Amino acid sequence: MTITEFTDTLKNATPPEGLSVQLRALWYDGKGDWQQAHDLVDQLSDPQSAHVHAYLHRVEGDQWNAGYWYDRAKQPVFKGSLKDEWTALVKQLL
User: Fold this and answer.
1) CA-to-CA distance for 21 and 24, rounded, in angstroms?
2) Which of 26, 27, 44, 81 makes an SS bond possible with 49, Cβ 3.0 to 4.6 Å?
3) Does 50 fall in a domain?
4) Burial 62-81 (b: 16+ CB within 10 A, else e)
């Protein structure tokens, strides 16, 4: 699946089958459902989930919590826009 194909699925009511939990979280965030996105990765501790979790706290505006999760993901704090980070994460996880 390409980023364009992934983005096109945001018009659907449910995420496509076979997405990783991290991509499902980003899909829900792309639909504007931050809570569902956060709930999917909230209890996961692997680096990819931690990176998505960091992004979601950045969306929320909680920079301290985002920084904590970037550290857990062993990733630098993203300096670009939220849209750019969402796109970069989706591309990385596809």
Assistant:
1) 5
2) 44
3) yes
4) eeeebeebbebbeeeebeee
